[in-house]
Request: fold
Amino acid sequence: MKKSAPAHFSIDTLLAERWSPRAFEDRSIEPARLRQLFEAARWAASSYNDQPWFYIVASRDNPAEFQKMLDCLVEFNQAWAKAAPVLAISVARTKFKHDGSVNRHAQHDVGAASASLALQAQSLGLAVHQMAGFDPQRARDTYHIPADHEPMAAMAIGYPGDPAALPDKLREREMSPRSRRPISEFVFAGDWGSVAPFVKHT
Ligand SMILES: Cc1cc2nc3c(=O)[nH]c(=O)nc-3n(C[C@H](O)[C@H](O)[C@H](O)COP(=O)(O)O)c2cc1C
Reply:
């Protein structure tokens, strides 16, 4: 299913067509494609080129490992994410490698890497659905994530599937149009809340 953004101003097709499905095809992801996703994450920009991103990945091809990660998700997410062929958890290293000081942008940079990953997925016909709904402490304990590293977001990755496979409520959400605040609400100039002139004039 396609769910193109009804953008006010034209944006790249890849950006417009990326969305977060909850229905996935029953189809594994080829390892070569998985490598491409993480290669895309690899080339994200980061403060001091510190590359503070890490990903723990679990494939349904290894049921025990998959279940281990599924168990880290909240129940609501488990219900649909169990159908995805691959789950992952992103992790941020919160201190700089070069001097051990706090990296205030670590989470920002992991988000950027994950955004690249999601767009690469889109270009390969895959989809990524990120999730805040997981237990970071459980992930830390399960995977022995070191101190100074913060579990950030879980994600379900797969080929988008038929929404008919979802329970009623989720199917409704799957079919509902995508919506966003207009750029006039978040692009300012001169003072907080003062809409940038180029936004007003468009
Ligand atoms: C960091 C993050 C956390 C999210 N957490 C959840 C979640 O726990 N469960 C869920 O169903 N969707 C989750 N989402 C998906 C968002 O609800 C979704 O991205 C948003 O509604 C916009 O829809 P779109 O991605 O299809 O454009 C999350 C997305 C992000 C980026």
Remarks:
- The first strand starts at residue 53 and ends at 59.
- The helical segments are 13-17, 31-42, 63-70, 75-81, 106-123, 136-143, 168-175, 197-200.
- The radius of gyration is 18 Å.
- The first helix runs from residue 13 to 17.
